[in-house]
Amino acid sequence: MFILSATPSSTFFTSTPRVSLSFLSSSSSSSSSSSRLCSVSVRFGARGPVFPCPIRSVKVRAMAEMVQDKDSAEENVACSGGERSHSRIFLDASTEEELLAGIRKEREEGRLPSNVASGMEVLYHNYKKAVFQSGNPRADEIVLSNMAVVFDRVFFDVEDPFVFSPYHKALREPFDYYMFGQSYIRPLVDFRNSYVGNISLFNEIEEKLQKGHNIVLMSNHQTEADPAIIALLLEATNPHIAESMTYIAGDRVLIDPLCKPFSKGRNLLCVYSKKHMYDDPELVEMKKKANTRSLKEMALLLRGGSQLIWIAPSGGRDRPDPHTNEWFPAPFDASSVDNMRRLAEHSGAPGHIYPLALLCNDIMPPPPQVEKEIGEERVISFHGAGLSVSPGISFSEIAAACGNPEKAKDAYSQAIYNSVTEQYNVLNSAIHGKQGLEASIPSVSLSQPWN
Length: 451
What we know:
Layout: H1 70-78, H2 96-108, H3 114-133, H4 139-159, E1 167-168, H5 177-185, E2 195-197, H6 199-210, E3 214-219, H7 226-234, H8 239-244, E4 246-250, H9 252-255, H10 260-263, E5 267-271, H11 284-304, E6 308-311, H12 334-345, E7 351-359, E8 386-389, H13 395-402, H14 405-431, E9 446-447
Parallel strand pairs: 2-8, 3-6, 3-7, 4-5, 4-6
Antiparallel strand pairs: 1-5, 2-9, 7-8
């Protein structure tokens, strides 16, 4: 639905070999909730301009109502004359039967492709099952309300496809796609069993952003819902971070029909992942050129300062060990880490790199293996999630200890990965090990800032 595929390893920078950087280039918060993530497209041109996007800065109410009521959701859809009118078949549905009948009707009349229609039905039932797991007494209302708006947005894009540009800014009006994504994911997060590590460092990050510094968060990547989960865990204390973050996203999140509406609500730098670079040999050169354009966009952004960039140097989502079924952060690609570091260091603004760990694979796990085909089934559950950040790691200190530049590059990447893994293990002990706040260690202090 909103795969934020990590940045490709060296491929992201392949077409600009040297990166010589003159830069041409129901939860504990069951009273908590409210609201309405992200994608990347194969072609760059758009309904109008490439990656169109006016941005409206709106502070999310910390842990508001669990779900926006249907009238409010419809008002958000209808409120603006910026969108052309389209069928209200899904928004007008008042029961599950009417909602699912709408899918069948549009498929039979040829307006909804069969594969998309099938994906919508599967998504509905999986989402319903997950929301009911929460025990929320309003589960029926939540499911119908949220899925009606999801189907409306999917159908709207099928009728009038949106095309992402290399740098996409979150669409907040006339329809607020950011809040749309938040509302959809919120009922899936068990806040009673969710944790944030080192919350004070997020405050430090926010202060540096206000001073014009650039921040790069090097993170593992677990699910399509990562951006929404990060935002939900930070909205009570750091809503600016939640809303201003720019994600380096793989192209698949921009072309999957069930993912695109969520992708529209995130700031994205769109790239082609190394894992899918050679799926079609005829498109390799086009993909490399597109990645070069994205590299230039990123360089321009960083030059202006006050940028918060999220990147997963593994190049994709984490997967469980096939033998033990244990989850762990996928290894980082040293070239991706080094290229991102050099971009930040040579931007002209102070830059800092922080290791970030995310644990949320139970909520929307990826397929066991990397798939070439678009249209994976979305398995969904109600579960706790975790987020943690550790102090920035200095490349110069590691380089001084290594002596050899190549060894320093690998050692730096490994140091960041080790920090992410350590934090991940703490979150895992807190959530899956049922240790809660007691899982804290000296370097990772857990809290539940929404309480």
